[in-house]
Amino acid sequence: xxxxxxxxxxxxxxxxxxxxxxxxxxxxxxxxxxxxxxxxxxxxxxxxxxxxxxxxxxxxxxxxxxxxxxxxxxxxxxxxxxxxxxxxxxxxxxxxxxxxxxxxxxxxxxxxxxxxxxxxxxxxxxxxxxxxxxxxxxxxxxxxxxxxxxxxxxxxxxxxxxxxxxxxxxxxxxxxxxxxxxxxxxxxxxxxxxxxxxxxxxxxxxxxxxxxxxxxxxxxxxxxxxxxxxxxxxxxxxxxxxxxxxxxxxxxxxxxxxxxxxxxxxxxxxxxxx
Amino acid sequence: xxxxxxxxxxxxxxxxxxxxxxxxxxxxxxxxxxxxxxxxxxxxxxxxxxxxxxxxxxxxxxxxxxxxxxxxxxxxxxxxxxxxxxxxxxxxxxxxxxxxxxxxxxxxxxxxxxxxxxxxxxxxxxxxxxxxxxxxxxxxxxxxxxxxxxxxxxxxxxxxxxxxxxxxxxxxxxxxxxxxxxxxxxxxxxxxxxxxxxxxxxxxxxxxxxxxxxxxxxxxxxxxxxxxxxxxxxxxxxxxxxxxxxxxxxxxxxxxxxxxxxxxxxxxxxxxxxxxxxxxxxxxxxxxxx
Lengths: 274, 290
Hints:
The structure holds 2 protein chains of 2 kinds.
Chain A: E1 2-11, E2 14-24, E3 29-34, H1 40-48, E4 55-60, E5 63-64, H2 70-79, E6 80-83, H3 95-100, H4 109-113, H5 119-131, H6 147-160, E7 165-169, H7 177-194, E8 197-201, H8 205-211, E9 214-219, E10 222-227, H9 234-241, H10 257-273
Helix pairs in contact in A: 5-6, 6-7
Chain B: H1 2-7, H2 9-53, H3 58-61, H4 67-78, H5 83-118, H6 130-142, H7 145-156, H8 160-184, H9 189-196, H10 201-235, H11 243-252, H12 258-288
Helix pairs in contact in B: 4-12, 5-8, 5-10, 5-12, 6-8, 7-8, 8-10, 9-10, 10-11, 10-12, 11-12
């Protein structure tokens, strides 16, 4: 379905993404992990064609995505929704208008300039908002919402695109643990209920392990791990992050259960000491 | 609990939201179309009124619009060999004009920084006087430069100084307003930080606000400089020297001097292009060089 072959991006002398190659045969939920600066964002931006690739190929259902230009490229972007860390909504417009932006590729510039959308689209936008549990905020300005709500508006905009692929660039990095869980649950549902492929950059290992069918680890722009969440042991994680033995994922984990885990271990250690 | 409410009432609730939003959208569209119709009607009727009051009539005159430039171009192209010499001849007046513009922009910008800080909510030293300073800026902007220049020429005699003062006064008003809008977007956190260490108002502004807003100030000031070059050329028409004076002479005694007009326009155009290039370069440097 989606196949990426030796995809490379260099900025001057720096290589942000270095010959990344992987295939996605059927819709899946894929997590990409790695240090900041490992090239995760650049990779997603290249798949969406926000950033031009320096070399390499992206193929989707037999089409060469990297060769698309003009209207074809915009049509691909409409098929391949993107969710950003900072939500990237239009703050002064209401929530439904922001969701309707998902249809921009199908509508004429003139009509959308005057905010004219078909009634059916407006109804569908509100249904999507309801599915994500924020229909009550429909007529509020996007900037009046909390971070977690804004991210769900961004997901609604992505769903409005009716995309085949959803790319999420650190979707929960700006959210508190409670909202992070809601957003990740939503992304998982998008994959399970709608059968869309979801590719998410994640900065916490436990999230990748809990929500993803497949995890790709990147270091210095290269893919250094590609496997199931079960294969993602602490040793592998140390390699991905280039960390030494002092690395412990619990110390930076944002999951609430980690607190219990930490307490249980402290208890075990205390018992062992006795 | 959310599952309980979602079951039966869920569909009804979504329909409520949809109905409410559709009603709001229809209202907005209605307002929008009314405003659009009123706008078009005003444009059409306004044009007709203005055209009716015209001495000649717009549609009769529009055909002649290229006659004068055509004449200038025709005469200038005949004497194209004179142009480099004439441009060299007018260079000292151009430098005088640019000097007037530069001095007035500099003085005006300094005044504008002060008055803009005094009239920005959250930064002003005397918050109650914000309105007063704003009205002062309005007055400085409202009086045309040419009026101030004529008054000053009457008092001080002709020359570059009255023009410089006149343009500087207008610049204080115009830049003051733009600067104060920039100030409103500045973050108050550094200012609060400096306040907490016991800094004076001047220290807070100079060290807390100016570093944040300097690139925007510079960009507006350079735009104003370009406008002031043109203003100082126009003031030459009323006797304050510079290239405007030469332009007026070349124009008014018409016959056979359109080559001089062309040379002066070329010089002015070149100057504006030059300063536009220089200013955008320095602005990029200031923003990028952090």
